[in-house]
Each structure stands twice: as structure tokens, then as C-alpha cells.
Amino acid sequence: MTTGNVVGGHKANLNNPNTSDESKQHSKEVLDNEFDGGKIPDNSDENKNPGNVAGGLKATLNNPNVSDEAKESAKERLEGMNQ
Predict the structure, then answer these.
(1) Per-residue pLDDT tens listing for the chain (83 residues)
(2) What pTM does this model have?
(3) Beta strands of 3-65 (E only): which ranges?
(4) Cβ neighbours of residue 70 under 8 Å, at least 6 residues apart?
(5) In the Cβ-directed half-sphere of 65, how many Cα atoms lie within 13 Å?
(6) What is the largest CA-CA distance in the chain?
(7) In angstroms, rounded to a whole number, what is the distance separating the alpha carbons of residues 57 and 77?
(8) Which of the 8 DSSP states describes residue 19?
(9) CA-to-CA separations, 74 to 4, 54, 65, 66, in angstroms, rounded
């Protein structure tokens, strides 16, 4: 389980009306003590396979269901990888 999954689970617990106050308190303590209040590291491409990242970005550029803003972002990231 990734850090993001753990943080997401605790954040979901805090917003769930069906969980107990004790459970919410525990999640708040975990987020505050172990995850700096729920902050997670930036989702960088640092540890990812560059070929897979490039392939995903190229797919984004050719997907008709993707917004122009997302396509522009993918294009810029792809150009940055080629430098």
C-alpha cells in the first residue's frame, strides 16, 4: 500500500459520517504524527519507467476525450523529457 493510499484512507475516514469519533481521532493523530498533517510527496515521474511515461503522454495527445488543457500539459511534459 502506498503512502497516498494510507493518507487517502485516513482522510476519507475523517469525512465519513458513519465512523466513530474515536476512529476519526485516531486518523487525525496518524495524519498529524506520521504524515505531516496529510501531506504526501509530489507525484513525480522520478521512479517511473520513462518509456511508459512517454507512452502515456503520447496516448493523452491522441485521445479525443481529453481536454485541450490536458493535451497541452502532456505535450509540455513530453518535450521536457526529450531534453
Answers:
(1) 777 888 889 999 999 999 999 999 999 999 888 888 777 666 665 677 889 989 999 999 999 999 999 999 999 999 988 75
(2) 0.49
(3) none
(4) 60
(5) 1
(6) 52
(7) 8
(8) S
(9) 23, 9, 14, 10
